[in-house]
């Protein structure tokens, strides 16, 4: 029962430094009440849940775009044709998708998040007020922490009309999530960012995905969050670090779109808080195990840092430190993995084992608070 205390034995990936501890964890009413160290025969691995810090869940209605050489459409050559508003392929599909179908598609992806160990996500929600409402509807009854970042539907309209829509969006969302500083009139963007701050909401923006031309402009808007920075130069990284702006990287998505590989090691070295997201559902599932394994094999950073990027750093980006690490008093958002599964049996280092090879089918249960 929810009101009774649960005692879960195993190897606990504990605290802000993610140190493995053999023992047990006590959970009552969704809060971690005790962590004890003792020898245990349990092969459980108890880990923090994932935070998927950048998604586009509306893409759940379009999961199989053509990618092959013979399809007549090469993602690597046509990123703008695929995702750039207002007339990229995905935006045309979203406009033609019935509201009920959109909700159903997003709901499936949200359920997939829960089943694959994610407890929180940040979504760049297309479709204005209606798009935000659709995601809020899809979330009903689900134990997921969400950051919903909307955007105006017709930014080419007069400024006052666009800002009126922005204010309506801000009433029902966590903030604004803009596609990029080159995609809208810059004066309008300045007004939108000012309006967002006045409402004390989050202003987030894509930057440096295709090239560096929008990074300086994005920084001048004083965003709370940047996404991608795939093509960031050393100076760009220093500027972001000086501004103390967290960055969300999306390695699998950037690879398939030909955007490149984000300089994550350099960002971390500069002191930037880096989180990770799966980006467009049309290109990648919301499975953070896949994102984590991919990162562990392409970036020259240790496994503990990769795991932190996919869990605790995402919690920081979401403004929810108490939902992140496993420590007394924090919310119990936990994955309990079978350390004796056919896949994980024999691992010596639980952090490396989870980061490099764990899969959703290794999960025994998930606790969400």
Structure description:
It is an enzyme of class 3 (hydrolase). Keywords: Hydrolase. The strands form two sheets. A nine-stranded parallel β-sheet has the order 12-11-10-9-8-7-6-5-13. About 50% of the residues are buried. It folds into two domains: about 5-50 and about 325-365, Urease, subunit C, domain 1, CATH 2.30.40; about 50-320, Alpha-Beta Barrel (TIM Barrel). With about 375 residues, it is of the alpha/beta class. Helix content is about 35%, strand content about 20%. The protein is built from 14 helices and 15 strands.
The main sheet comes to: 9 strands, parallel
Count of the domains? 2
* Tally of DSSP helical segments: 14
Strand share of the residues?
A: 15-25%
Just give the CATH class of the largest domain.
Alpha Beta
Q: How do the SSEs run, as a string of H and E?
A: EEEEEHHHEHEHEHEHEHEHHEEHHHEHE
Q: Structural class of the helix and strand makeup?
A: alpha/beta
CATH architecture name of the largest domain: Alpha-Beta Barrel
User: Count of DSSP E strands?
Assistant: 15
CATH level 4 superfamily of the largest domain: Metal-dependent hydrolases
Distance between the termini: 14 Å
Radius of gyration: 20 Å
């Amino acid at each position: 029962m929810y009101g009774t205390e649960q005692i879960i034995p195993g190897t606990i990936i504990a605290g802000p430094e993610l140190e493995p501890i053999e023992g047990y964890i006590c959970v009552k009413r969704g809060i971690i009440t005790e962590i004890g160290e003792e020898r245990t025969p349990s092969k459980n691995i108890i880990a923090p849940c994932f935070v998927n810090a950048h998604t586009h869940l509306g893409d759940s209605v379009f999961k199989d775009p053509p990618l092959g050489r013979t399809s007549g459409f090469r993602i690597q050559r046509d990123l703008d044709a695929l995702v750039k508003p207002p007339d990229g392929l995905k935006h045309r599909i979203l406009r033609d998708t019935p509201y009920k179908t959109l909700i159903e598609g997003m709901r499936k992806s949200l359920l997939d998040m829960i089943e694959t160990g994610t407890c929180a996500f940040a979504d760049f929600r297309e479709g204005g007020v209606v798009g935000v409402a659709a995601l809020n509807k899809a979330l009903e009854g689900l134990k997921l922490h969400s950051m919903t970042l909307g955007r105006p539907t017709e930014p080419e309209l007069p400024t006052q009309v666009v800002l009126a829509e922005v204010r309506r969006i801000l009433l029902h969302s966590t903030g604004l999530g803009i596609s990029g500083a080159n995609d809208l009139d810059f004066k309008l963007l300045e007004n939108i960012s000012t309006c967002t701050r006045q409402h004390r909401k989050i202003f987030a923006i894509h930057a440096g995905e295709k090239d560096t031309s929008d990074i300086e402009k994005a920084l001048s808007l004083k965003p709370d969050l940047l996404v991608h920075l795939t093509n960031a130069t050393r100076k760009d990284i220093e500027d972001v670090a000086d501004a103390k702006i967290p960055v969300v990287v999306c390695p699998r998505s950037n690879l398939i779109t030909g955007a490149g590989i984000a300089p994550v090691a350099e960002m971390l070295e500069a002191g930037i808080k880096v989180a990770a997201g799966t980006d467009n559902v049309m290109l990648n599932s919301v499975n953070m195990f896949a994102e984590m394994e991919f990162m562990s094999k392409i970036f020259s950073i240790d496994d503990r840092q990769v795991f932190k990027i996919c869990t605790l750093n995402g919690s920081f980006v979401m403004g929810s430190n108490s939902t992140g690490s496993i420590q007394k008093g924090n919310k119990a958002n936990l994955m309990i993995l079978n350390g004796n599964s056919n896949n994980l049996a024999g691992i010596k280092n639980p952090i490396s084992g989870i980061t490099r090879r764990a899969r959703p089918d290794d999960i025994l249960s998930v606790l969400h608070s």
